[in-house]
């Protein structure tokens, strides 16, 4: 999956948080220059009037330094955790029908496998 495809899945609030993070460190003028957009666009992103495109988010990730990438990763991780909590609540509200139980088990097995892979990667890096 390309970065652009991944960023397409992020909601507006997460996109805004990513812009806020990079602007906080670099300043709006520098971010505008780095991204090839106007200072007005950065201002509108920060006000929530418009939201950065997938292409802009991909560019942010490309130009970000280690500290910025860590902060962006945390923001995206928090979004994913919130999404999973909402997903869990949705399934919890469904009837205890066998088909839902089977679907839940399949999805949770896949999630468990992904979590194990991520944990393994983290363990290898430390």
TrEMBL record:
Keyword field: Ribonucleoprotein, Ribosomal protein
InterPro entries: Cro/C1-type_HTH, Lambda_DNA-bd_dom_sf
Keyword Ribosomal protein appears in the UniProt entry: yes
GO molecular function, one term: DNA binding
Positions of the HTH cro/C1-type domain: 29-60
Any single GO CC term annotated in Swiss-Prot or TrEMBL for this entry: ribosome
UniProt cross-references to Pfam families, sorted A to Z: HTH_3
Domain of life: Archaea
The protein, known as: 50S ribosomal protein L29
Organism: Fervidicoccus fontis
């Amino acid at each position: 999956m390309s970065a652009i495809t991944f960023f397409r899945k992020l909601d507006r609030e997460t996109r805004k948080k990513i812009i806020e993070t990079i602007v906080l460190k670099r300043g709006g003028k520098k971010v505008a220059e780095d991204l090839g957009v106007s200072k007005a666009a950065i201002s509108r992103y920060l006000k929530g009037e418009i939201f950065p495109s997938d292409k802009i988010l991909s560019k942010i990730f490309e130009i970000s330094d280690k500290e910025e990438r860590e902060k962006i990763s945390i923001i995206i991780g928090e979004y994913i955790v919130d999404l999973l909590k909402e997903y869990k609540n949705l399934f919890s509200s469904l009837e205890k029908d066998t088909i839902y139980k089977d679907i839940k088990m399949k999805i949770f097995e896949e999630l468990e496998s992904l979590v194990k892979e991520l944990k393994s990667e983290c363990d290898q890096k430390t």
